[in-house]
Amino acid sequence: MPVQPDERDAGDDPCVAVPARPAAAHWSRALAGWAVPDHLEVASTARGPMRFDVARFARIAEHALRIDGPSRQRASEVLEAGGAVLDVGCGAGAGSLPLVPPAGHLVGLDLQPDMLAAFAARARALGAEATTIEGRWPDDVGRVPEVDVVVCHHVVYGAPELATFAHALAAPARRRVVIELTRRHPLTWLTPFWVALHGIERPTEPSSDHAAAVLAEVGLPVVVEHWDKPRPAEVEDSDEQVRFVRDRLRLGPERDEEIRALLAAHPQPAHREVTTLWWDVG
User: Are the beta carbons of 119 and 107 closer than 8 angstroms?
Assistant: First the structure.
């Protein structure tokens, strides 16, 4: 990926002034505030690494087929019949499966092999060709093929270097990049749980507006669309919700009844406030 002029290290040329990036710096600092405290990470080590549940993501992908919002519309409108789509952090395919048709070839990149298997199976069931790449973004941008559209749904809150991440998204795209993210950090709804179970206040930033500011700051012609997305009631049963909260708060099963009581008092909202960020390439 070519380095943008304002991405050079000042050490490369002492005469070159590197523009300040206050939006990017704010984004990185704000995300750092969401890190799980060290003592909780250490205490959870014995329970093994946290992995995303494939069955849950598969149900989310199936629900996405019924949602016709701006993210789907902005990607579909520039795809010709049989077009190719790269889905970065694809999970089971919620960002790209709804694009078939017109898309005829879906490329999924994800860290979990079992997620990639679920993605490929669903893409082929819809009649699309599927290619999977086990990897990390943007480290593996050089391994992906050129495509018409790149989509990236609910990943960027895990990208502290958002400018680099976004420029990499544009590298393989011939026509458009479409990002979807929640208006606020997706774990904001767990704030009362952190207070009740750990006595810890969680941050209130960053937001999708901060993400848009980062992209604009590095010269990407980003368009912003805010909308409400219904949350599928069938995605999680009560036990799954308990496990989700337990994992995110690094707790053991001995706290399950407390979690269950808190879920009754602070249920997940029926709708998610989300944002679609998109821009044309070339």
Answer: no
